[in-house]
């Protein structure tokens, strides 16, 4: 009888141990843990990136088009349109600026405060990617898609009250991309001092991070801030000037400029607006 009890007790302990290992993902066989090898050392062109189903070419050359005033009076449109994937952001228009920035848009990153509201700007071939910075941004999208009432409280600027994009055109950016841009590429601290506004990356840097994940070659156009000339145009459209950006407490432009300089110097990307 005692033998049975001991056997039952021992097998219970064993089962508990096995279950524990399975639940917590530890190694059942008591072998010293081996560092998981990162698989993304060299990405052969044939590997399928995320978003693959949205893209028809396997080996993609991408251009990320910033909204910088540096694109003004340049005629990069035709060059930009020649890329496989064209990533734009926010409400940087194509309409009326075709010569400067081209016509095609594969992905457009946006957030509720920055999305177009004029349906003339909708290109049915564009996938609009919501960059959610706060839980409210997801709620906003949900309310727009389900026809609910939009509560505009909690946005830093009045958000769009209707979507010019059809549901099939919309995706939500994996927050991993934003975290990677903030913590790994721009080296933002996880916690900011109480007297400082927490910084987040500009959509431009997030778009570059996305491009690094889905493209095999990344080129940039329209990325430039010149703070020694506060009257120079901030964007290639509209009338905003650099002074608007210099007052922005939510971005760390210094960190972004260092990052851009670094990836251009290392030839990770090519600066198309180079003159
Ligand atoms: C662009 O060209 C227009 C007309 O030629 C000129 O008035 C304007 O100052 C130029 N803008 C820039 C940023 O060079
Ligand atoms: C969308 O793509 C199709 C197929 O490539 C093309 O024929 C059409 O002109 C494009 N539409 C716009 C508005 O660019
Ligand atoms: C920035 O603007 C100033 C004043 O217009 C100009 O002298 C300077 O060359 C510009 N810097 C760059 C990097 O374009
Ligand atoms: C920019 O300024 C010009 C001239 O002052 C004005 O006609 C135009 O409507 C303004 N554009 C925007 C987008 O505010
Ligand atoms: C901005 O980034 C730079 C470079 O990473 C850093 O030295 C600086 O302290 C940051 N400034 C703020 C206000 O976070
Ligand atoms: C790209 O090149 C232009 C022209 O040399 C320069 O003014 C701009 O700052 C560069 N962009 C970046 C992000 O370095």
UniProtKB/TrEMBL annotation:
<keyword id="KW-0808">Transferase</keyword>
<feature type="transmembrane region" description="Helical">
    <location>
        <begin position="6"/>
        <end position="31"/>
    </location>
</feature>
<keyword id="KW-0735">Signal-anchor</keyword>
<keyword id="KW-0328">Glycosyltransferase</keyword>
<dbReference type="InterPro" id="IPR051142">
    <property type="entry name" value="Glycosyltransferase_29"/>
</dbReference>
<comment type="similarity">
    <text>Belongs to the glycosyltransferase 29 family.</text>
</comment>
<keyword id="KW-1133">Transmembrane helix</keyword>
<comment type="function">
    <text>Transfers the sialyl residue from CMP-N-acetyl-beta-neuraminate to the terminal galactose residue on sugar chains of glycoproteins and glycolipids. It's alpha-2,3-sialyltransferase activity is specific toward type II glycan chains (Galbeta1-4GlcNAc) on glycoproteins and glycolipids such as neolactosides nLc4Cer and nLc6Cer, whose sialyl-products serve as precursors for the Lewis X antigen. Critically involved in the synthesis of functional selectin ligands needed for neutrophil recruitment during inflammation and lymphocyte homing to the lymph nodes.</text>
</comment>
<keyword id="KW-0333">Golgi apparatus</keyword>
<keyword id="KW-0472">Membrane</keyword>
<dbReference type="InterPro" id="IPR038578">
    <property type="entry name" value="GT29-like_sf"/>
</dbReference>
<dbReference type="InterPro" id="IPR012163">
    <property type="entry name" value="Sialyl_trans"/>
</dbReference>
<dbReference type="GO" id="GO:0009247">
    <property type="term" value="P:glycolipid biosynthetic process"/>
</dbReference>
<dbReference type="InterPro" id="IPR001675">
    <property type="entry name" value="Glyco_trans_29"/>
</dbReference>
<dbReference type="GO" id="GO:0008118">
    <property type="term" value="F:N-acetyllactosaminide alpha-2,3-sialyltransferase activity"/>
</dbReference>
<dbReference type="Pfam" id="PF00777">
    <property type="entry name" value="Glyco_transf_29"/>
</dbReference>
<feature type="disulfide bond">
    <location>
        <begin position="62"/>
        <end position="215"/>
    </location>
</feature>
<keyword id="KW-0812">Transmembrane</keyword>
<keyword id="KW-0325">Glycoprotein</keyword>
<protein>
    <recommendedName>
        <fullName>Type 2 lactosamine alpha-2,3-sialyltransferase</fullName>
        <ecNumber>2.4.3.6</ecNumber>
    </recommendedName>
</protein>
<dbReference type="GO" id="GO:0000139">
    <property type="term" value="C:Golgi membrane"/>
</dbReference>
